[in-house]
Amino acid sequence: ETIEADFLIFAAPMTEFPRIVADATSFEREVASSLTSVGLCVHLLRTKKKDKIEESSLTFYPESLQSKYTTKPSGEVYAERNSIRAYNGAKDSFKDRFVVTYQYFPDPVKDMEGATKAACDFITNPKVTVNATPGEPVLIYRKNWNYFPHFNQKAIQNFMPWKVFDSQGANRTWYIGSSVSFESVEDVTRYNNQLLYHNFAQ
Fold it and tell me: What HEC string does 98-116 produce?
């Protein structure tokens, strides 16, 4: 189905623009080809519960996040979330522990089984997590995202983010998603407020 519109506000990753918009311009296709992403793999696992673990949603960061952000990720678990309440908000007592693990990869994840094994090994290893739990974890759900679309180094050196900003509104099209700014709520909000001020302030 094709939809014709008077204007377009595009919030999805710009990598998807040529696939979604039939009459994408050569510049929009160039923007899409200038983006790269990382892999974000998330697991929901069930394990045995330690006696003194709290039944509230907690996040345990095994190492300094700064070191993970300044080195190339390779699938290490960078955070685990104790999610008994996140899994089911009821006040009932649970005999098992429900935990969510988060892993970054340099590229979209291809080896899901390997990622799952790494996550299971992590949450049961007392040498790497303060909340290691016994037994073989049971996989309940896992999800892999092409996460954090961002301009590659060459595109930045060619001033692509600024070119995108200067082209906002051309052909009655606006690009407001994180792929043209940065993957955080604050940055996207500031970017879009800047667009409003730059183009519509009286």
Answer: EEEEEEEECCCCCCHHHHH
